[in-house]
Design a protein that fits this description.
The complex is a heterodimer of chains A (about 240) and B (about 350).
Chain A: H1 7-17, H2 28-34, H3 38-61, H4 71-93, H5 95-101, H6 103-106, H7 112-120, H8 127-157, E1 159-160, H9 165-168, E2 177-178, H10 192-229
Antiparallel strand pairs in A: 1-2
Helix pairs in contact in A: 1-8, 3-4, 3-8, 4-5, 4-7, 8-10
Chain B: H1 17-39, H2 42-64, H3 69-74, H4 77-88, H5 95-111, H6 123-134, H7 136-139, H8 155-164, H9 173-176, H10 181-190, H11 195-198, H12 212-228, H13 235-254, H14 262-266, H15 271-278, H16 289-309, H17 316-333
The chains are: A mainly alpha (about 240), B mainly alpha (about 350).
Chain lengths: ~240, ~350
């Protein structure tokens, strides 16, 4: 039963093993459009996380009241309300960031990652679990968006966290990293093909890490068995 | 007199990848020599660098995949990719751009999809597009053809430009580079000049730009050699050039002052080279005969459309890549009927 899975299991699944962007390949539209820099990716990721946590919790709260026939419109309504909320908050406090991300904040409404979690997880689990799931999936998405943004920004412009002050205030200025003026960036990294190529490489990296971890844990599991049985000395020849 | 009688199958010789690739390289020689004649040593230097980078990249990836690099290097496909790449890029491209392009072609476009025979896109063209989109300035720095140039770069001067980007004393980029005929034509047409006015410039020869038209003619010779050796069939080159010609003639007859003469389209840019050497890549092109005609004809139309209304001056690379992705679907719908199956008879 899935319900018996602990918080750690839910968290690990959302953040890594079932990462909605690297494994589910969901939410590609914001992924392609907003990861032109690490700052944009981080901003988009945080906005998505906020919506995801709130919508997961709300959907989980109303899961026994909503008739299954109309659940999808209700989910969309819930998500749209929170997206509007996030949009207004961004307009009030991060106006420049809002101008950069623009339309894609409103488009979080139709992000299939969020409605996917509402349908697949929040509508079947209690509030606390839904909250943890929302947070984990959101952070997983933020991780991917930020690293892909960093990759594209570094290759394309030779900077990292350029304009971070838009999101993090004046302290963000110290985060900005420049590769130097001589660096000639590959423009393609900033353009949409760069996002596809970068995402492909990130998926490959994740698979590589997963494989290595599996091999390591298999080796660790194999060792004590060998030690316990104490194989006899092999006969010569 | 005794004649040797062999039993069937009567196969004259075994077709192997390396033999085909060797023929392609041979067929490229006249065009490459012509380009060297008009644009100087840079092309050969770039080509040498590209071949070395390609072989190193291919071996590195194959070793990382746990395979022996020798057969793949011996089949010369990486060399052909490198040579086609060097022909497409400007002859004074900085060495690190050649390295980037070749790495992109061999590692990302070819080997990540499984290596020789598995890549859906033409590696040389993908690398060209990658560089053109990423570094538009360096990729449009074409030299002036030798009969129009005031200064002819010597071997050492070309080498220095490629290796550390420093120009010879007293020269500027403007002095040694000039717009390609396609660039020139597009720029002047955008200024609302008529073709009669545009063609008064000394840049123009009989059909296309001076120098350029002859390079295309020498590549045509190589292409005919490939046809004669039956390395390629006529379907793709003929359908591609024919559809390009049809489009160009149609618009030219409608308004000869704002649309270039049809032969201009054939003998400019990479049309001939693309038709015989690039679109015919056996891995990425369509494989059925009807499919090859559709494939080639669509490339021709796309070349005309992108050249005339698109954002980039030449279009062969974009058109070929677009049709590469469509090739499996074309093949699917143009399967020849297997004898005894389907049809109306039974």
């Amino acid at each position: 039963m899935k319900a018996t899975k602990g918080y750690a299991g839910i968290f690990g699944e959302g953040l890594w093993s079932n990462n909605q962007m690297l494994v589910g390949l969901l939410g590609l539209c914001p992924l392609l459009a907003t990861t032109t820099s690490a700052t944009n990716g981080l901003g988009m990721g945080l906005a998505t996380t906020a919506v995801l946590v709130c919508s997961n919790a709300t959907v989980s709260l109303v899961r026994n009241l909503v008739r299954p026939e109309i659940r999808i419109p209700v989910f969309v309504l819930v998500i749209a309300s929170f997206v509007t909320l996030v949009e207004l908050v961004m307009q009030a406090f991060f106006y420049e960031m809002y101008l950069v991300l623009g339309l894609f904040i409103s488009l979080i409404v139709v992000n299939c990652m969020i409605i996917g979690r509402a349908e697949a997880f929040a509508s079947k689990h209690s509030v606390d679990r839904a909250l943890v799931d929302g947070l984990a999936v959101g952070l997983g998405a933020t991780l991917v968006l930020t690293s892909l943004g960093a990759l594209r920004e570094l290759v394309g412009q030779g900077t990292l966290f350029n304009q971070a002050e838009l999101l993090l205030g004046e302290a963000g200025r110290h985060l900005t990293f420049h590769l130097g003026d001589d660096y000639q960036g590959a423009l393609i990294a900033i353009l949409p093909p760069g996002a596809f190529i970068g995402l492909g490489l990130m998926i490959a990296l994740k698979n590589l890490i997963d494989k290595a971890v599996k091999r390591l844990s298999a080796a660790r599991r194999a060792k004590p068995v060998q030690a316990a049985t104490q194989p006899p000395e092999p006969a010569a020849g | 007199m005794k004649t040797f009688i062999a039993s069937s199958p009567h196969v004259a010789r075994v077709n192997r990848v390396d033999r085909i690739m060797l023929q392609v390289l041979l067929a490229l020689i006249p065009g490459v020599l012509a380009m060297t004649w008009y644009f100087g040593w840079g092309l050969l230097i770039n080509m040498g660098l590209a071949i070395v980078f390609a072989l190193l990249a291919e071996s590195a990836v194959l070793l990382a995949r746990g395979r022996s690099p020798l057969p793949a290097i011996g089949d010369l496909s990486a060399v052909v990719t490198a040579v086609l790449f060097a022909i497409s890029v400007p002859p004074i491209l900085p060495w690190w751009l050649t390295l980037l392009g070749i790495l992109f072609a061999i590692v990302l476009v070819k080997q990540l999809y499984g290596g020789m025979g598995y890549n859906p896109f033409n590696p040389a063209m993908a690398a060209y597009v990658f560089l053109l989109v990423s570094y538009p300035v360096a990729m449009t720095n074409w030299l002036t053809p030798s009969m129009l140039a005031e200064h002819h770069l010597s071997f050492m001067e070309s080498l220095r430009i490629i290796l550390d980007g420093s120009l010879p004393q007293g020269l500027t980029w403007d002095a040694i580079t000039s717009a390609t005929p396609l660039d020139e034509m597009r720029g002047k047409l955008d200024q609302n000049l008529t073709l009669d006015q545009i063609r008064q410039s000394p840049l123009w020869g009989n059909f296309g730009g001076r120098g350029w038209e002859w390079i295309a003619a020498w590549f045509l010779l190589g292409g005919l050699y490939l046809l004669w050796r039956r390395i390629i069939t006529w379907h793709i080159p003929v359908s591609m050039l024919a559809s390009l010609l049809v489009c160009a003639t149609l618009f030219w007859t409608l308004d000869p002052q704002t649309h270039p003469f049809p032969a201009f389209h054939l003998f400019s840019g990479a049309a001939i080279l693309g038709a015989f050497f690039i679109a015919t890549d056996p891995v990425t092109a369509s494989t059925t005969q009807r499919g090859q005609i559709i494939f080639g004809a669509t490339i021709g139309v796309l070349v005309y459309v992108i050249r005339t209304w698109g954002g980039y001056p030449d279009a062969v690379a974009f058109a070929v890549l677009l049709m590469n992705i469509a090739a499996p679907m074309i093949d699917h719908y143009t399967q020849p009927r297997v004898f005894g199956h389907g049809g109306k008879g039974i």
